[in-house]
């Protein structure tokens, strides 16, 4: 053969071993491989074509690899995983290799190849034969995951839907796409394209247009279009039946309220807002209208018996009344010392009155809510931390301050008074112990937030008028202001070293959860005795008494306002579930 071919067929011990040992998997990487590929004219060695048993092939990080060489698809019929990331494969170089169908292929990774167009086999306009389009059988009938991120793609064609009809995950971040779904969806008509596509990731592109036809993807669960050039979001997103997670951050949305929501809200709230027509009528009436519409739909789905219960639930919609600072004879104020900005800069507080924690396991459920929020929205307390206090035990005014680890003293929940430094050491030992018992290699949730204070000269703390530390975030709050069954009024605090917005979003969600909890407590209590007894205990109509939120000002040491919560724009994220009387 020609010298080039000889070089390529030269010493490939990996391939010889794979053949000898009848291997199913082969991973080629590293400098030696790159050198041999370069010597072989930038293509894969012929010997690879003699491994028909191969199910998984990875050849990554080889800048010399420009083409797969013809016949790869035909030679490797059992291939289910093909990873070719960070090479220099152009569409033509891929085209010949992916020419024939790969009937078993489930995962194809072509990320980081500088592709400007897709190879014809994937329905692109790039070179190669064996176009996966037309009425022929699909080229990749089993393909579930396609990774095309970090290429230079400007557009995608409708051929992909035909070439890979079973696709579940399409990763396109870091390309130059201008529109989504753009040309990805073939012109209308059966069969529906991508019936199983549940994850579409197109962050870090140049997407300026998100089309309403996104709703034509029936299985879409997760959509990431962060860091693009979107100015608006189509209301049709609300029609994606399964959409659960969507990331729209890092776009320049015109609707500022939406922009705010996008940076901190649950996807559900964003979709509700879009469904209600955004800013248009987006106030209470459209939310109510929405609720009514949803109830109707629910009712049609359920048989009448269950439906009626829903209606009842709707009547006692969650109410929260806000007491404005100006109307409050003794508003609570939190002063912030300048030192916190290097340690844990952001704090949001408010007062919530009228909570009932007496009945049954209400207190336990209240604490569970807090734990769950810490796990989820606070990302194991690493992005934000909640502290809840009994307002009667809080001696105002409060100061959010910093103190050195060996001076800061606190009486943690359920422990004796201790210095912060010693408490942290104790907790670290406990976390370590826990980890050993569970034989865990990874860091437990506890470890993660303990690390937030590593190497800090000062620790953050919330101090009352008597100089006692009532909270030491993100670690613990104090036994001194601990919530008990008798507690009626709460002082709530959320701190973060990430952003003010995350504090507000966590607080919004906390208020909503407490309101939901309070309602279910009252409803269960109602079921426990006759109506007469209930009236005697709590006076008629108590069920719908709104919780009262008092605005709390956070000011600097000179008294200049830093944060007022809840302000007009707060609680927007949960407005579809909570009626706020301002």
Explain this structure to me?
The protein has 582 residues and is an alpha/beta fold. It folds into 2 domains: 17-120 and 139-276, Leucine-rich repeat, LRR (right-handed beta-alpha superhelix), CATH 3.80.10.10; 318-523 and 544-580, Phenylalanyl-tRNA Synthetase, Chain B, domain 3 (3-Layer(bba) Sandwich). It has helices spanning 3-9, 13-20, 31-39, 72-75, 91-97, 159-163, 256-264, 267-275, 284-301, 304-315, 362-375, 420-437, 445-450, 500-526, 531-538, and strands at 25-28, 56-59, 81-83, 107-109, 145-147, 169-171, 179-180, 199-201, 209-210, 222-224, 245-247, 318-323, 333-336, 346-353, 385-390, 398-403, 409-410, 418-419, 459-463, 469-472, 476-477, 489-496, 547-556, 561-565, 578-581. The strands form 4 sheets. Strands 12, 13, 14, 15, 16, 19, 20, 21, 22, 23, 24 and 25 form a 12-stranded mixed sheet that branches. A 9-stranded parallel sheet has the order 1-2-3-4-5-6-8-10-11, covered by helices on one side. Helix 3 (31-39) links the parallel strand 1 and strand 2 (56-59). 39% of the residues are buried.
Summarize it.
The chain contains 15 helices and 25 strands. By secondary structure, the chain is α/β, with parallel strands linked by helices.
